[in-house]
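This section describes the prediction task in plain terms. A model, or a person checking by hand, is given the sequence of a single protein chain and must write out its three-dimensional structure as a string of tokens. No templates, partner chains or ligands are provided. The sample shown here is typical of the held-out split.
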Amino acid sequence: MSVGCKEGGLEPRDGSVVASVARQIGLVLENLRLRDEREAREARLARVLSYTMQAQEGERARIARELHDDAGQRLTYLKLGLKALESEFEPGHQGLVLLENLRDAVGQSIEGIRDMAVQLRPPALDDLGLVPSLERLLRQCATSFGWQVDFQLVGEDDPRLSPECEVAAYRIVQEALTNAGRHAGARRVSLIAEQLSQALVLVVEDDGTGFDVSEIMDDADPARHLGLDGMRERIELVGGSLMIESSPGSGTSVRVRVPRRSRVVE
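The expected answer:
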């Protein structure tokens, strides 16, 4: 800012005007500095969240592989060994009954480990893509929780989303379905996937007990809304949006808009 003086110098009131303008400019510059600092902090936080979630997904994949390749195979060998031992006993022998019971228990453990590995990192997400993986997840939840389910795909089958967007969408829908089964007591659940040119819109609806969204989100106990916070953080990190509608006794609707490419965080 430059100030020009008229002949005879500044009058007292001119000096007051200049000082007032200077103060206003100082406030503007300070606000700009604070804004830049805030944006820098938000960018750093976004990077930390991104790296944390990537590390989390990598660890999930590693544990899933170890469960399947190590623990799963060891239990399979054990089951085969128990089967081979059955030939040492006559039909109806007490030892044979015990072996059969043990073999059944090992078989159930193998199935449990396989289900756990799929939940940690579904192979279909890498092989088939997001939409087929979500449909498969919905069917699996229907079997586990005894739901009547409906799946709808709207629009043409467009190219896949970026990996980070697919993972974010899958985890959000997984959380919504888990909540519907464990907390809402739902009987009917629907999943709609709408393909748009720049995004994929997913809607999960259930007929469960519902809840007061504002009450849960405003609760001082973070454990009550930890899952919802995680859903919002995941979708905001990739530049998408999340809307949750629910009220006691009227079920829940979760709508998530996932961009085809994540926003770049350098």
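For orientation: The beta strands are 148-154, 188-195, 199-206, 241-246, 252-259.
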